[in-house]
Design goal:
CATH superfamily: Gcn5-related N-acetyltransferase (GNAT)
Structural class: alpha+beta
CATH topology: Aminopeptidase
Number of helices: 5
CATH architecture: 3-Layer(aba) Sandwich
Number of domains: 1
Distance between the termini: 31 Å
Shape: globular
Helix content: 25-40%
Strand content: 25-35%
CATH class: Alpha Beta
Largest sheet: 8 strands, mixed
Length: about 180
């Protein structure tokens, strides 16, 4: 399995992954988010990774920078979206993508990685709701326990209420 950086040339393959992984009510909006993040501009690099076997793209994950509004020296990332082709699920591809992204972020001055997803799935990587408790997402969450984080580098701001600001593509209420 090859994990590599995604490019705009991968847009159609990414769209296919999201259409396979999610039902119709979620697949198009999630695919468009993933594709738009490929060309989103940000102060820090957006990490977009594909899992590929031979010439077939089997999965995708994106990590985009988030900032705390009142702490300019704090840097976080948001893991979203993540998908694996339905025919390739439960084979460790999603885990491989998440671990590859976390490894890239651990090499940088990133304080925290946040995710809004299934607590049972993300716990395997060390994400907890407790670590995210002091990070306020941009919108009210339907499933507050799904807001989780993993601390990569301690920062004094972790004990304060951090209002999180995402890249523009993620600042859409329907995504939350």
């Amino acid at each position: 399995m090859l994990v590599r950086n995604a490019t705009t040339f991968d847009s159609e393959a990414m769209r296919n992954v999201y259409r396979s992984a999610f039902d119709a009510s979620e697949s198009d909006i999630t695919a468009e988010l993933a594709i738009s993040l490929l060309s989103e501009s940000a102060d820090e690099e957006i990490i977009s990774l594909l899992a590929q076997r031979d010439d077939q793209v089997l999965g995708h994950v994106c990590f985009s920078p988030v900032h705390a509004l009142e702490h300019s020296n704090w840097l976080g990332y948001l893991l979203a979206p993540l998908a694996v082709m339905a025919t390739a699920q439960h084979a460790g591809i999603g885990s491989q993508l998440v671990r590859a992204g976390l490894a890239k972020l651990a090499e940088r001055e990133v304080n925290m990685v946040l995710v809004y997803g299934d607590p049972d799935y993300y716990a395997r990587f060390g994400f907890t709701a407790l670590d995210a408790a002091n990070c306020l997402p941009p919108y009210l969450l339907q499933y507050p326990m799904a807001w989780q984080a993993i601390v990569l580098r301690e920062h004094s701001a972790h004990s304060a209420g951090l209002q999180i600001r995402c890249v523009p593509a993620l600042m859409e209420p329907e995504l939350w």
